[in-house]
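TICKET: design request
STATUS: open
ATTACHED STRUCTURE:
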C-alpha cells in the first residue's frame, strides 16, 4: 500500500534530505503493509526499532545541515523537531494493535507531508538562494 509518497513538490532540493524523506515514506508504507498482512507484531517492532530511530537520525542530520549553512530559521525549526519527536516516541510506546499502528502511521505521514512541504522546503529555498549562489 502506498499511503505516502514524496512527490516532486515535496523535494527540498537538498539531495541527502530528500532521500531521507523518501526513506521515511517507504518505511511507513512498509509498516502498513506488514499490518495489512496480519503481521502486526512485526509492524510494531519495525516502527520502534527502525522507523523511530531513523526519524530521530533524520531530524538531527537536518539540524546539522541547517547549522552548517547558517540557516536563520534553525532554532524555530529545531523546536518543531523536538515536539514531534516527543509525540512519535510516545505513540511508539502506545502501540498495541493494528488500529493503533495504522493511526500512528497516518499521523506520521500527515506530519511528513505538512512539515516537509511547509517547513523543510524553506531551508531548501535558503540553500538555493544564498548558499548555491555564493559558490
Ligand atoms: Fe525533514
Ligand atoms: Fe525538518
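STATUS: resolved
RESOLUTION: sequence designed for all positions
ATTACHED SEQUENCE:
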Amino acid at each position: 500500500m502506498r499511503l505516502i509518497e514524496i512527490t516532486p513538490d515535496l523535494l527540498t532540493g537538498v539531495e541527502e534530505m530528500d532521500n531521507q524523506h523518501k526513506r521515511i515514506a517507504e518505511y511507513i508504507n512498509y509498516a502498513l503493509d506488514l499490518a495489512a498482512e496480519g503481521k502486526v507484531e512485526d509492524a510494531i517492532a519495525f516502527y520502534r526499532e527502525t522507523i523511530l530511530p531513523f526519524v530521530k537520525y533524520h531530524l538531527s542530520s537536518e539540524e546539522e545541515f541547517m547549522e552548517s549553512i547558517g540557516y536563520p530559521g534553525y532554532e524555530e525549526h529545531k523546536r518543531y523537531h523536538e515536539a514531534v519527536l516527543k509525540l512519535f516516541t510516545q505513540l511508539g510506546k502506545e502501540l498495541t494493535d493494528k488500529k493503533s499502528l495504522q493511526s500512528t502511521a497516518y499521523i506520521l505521514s500527515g506530519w511528513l507531508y505538512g512539515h516537509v512541504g511547509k517547513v523543510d522546503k524553506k531551508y531548501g529555498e535558503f540553500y538555493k538562494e544564498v548558499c548555491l549562489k555564493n559558490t
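CLOSING REMARK: Helices lie at 15-36, 40-68, 74-93, 98-131. The pocket of fe (ii) ion (ligand 1) is lined by residues 17, 21, 58, 62, 116, 120 (CB under 6 Å).
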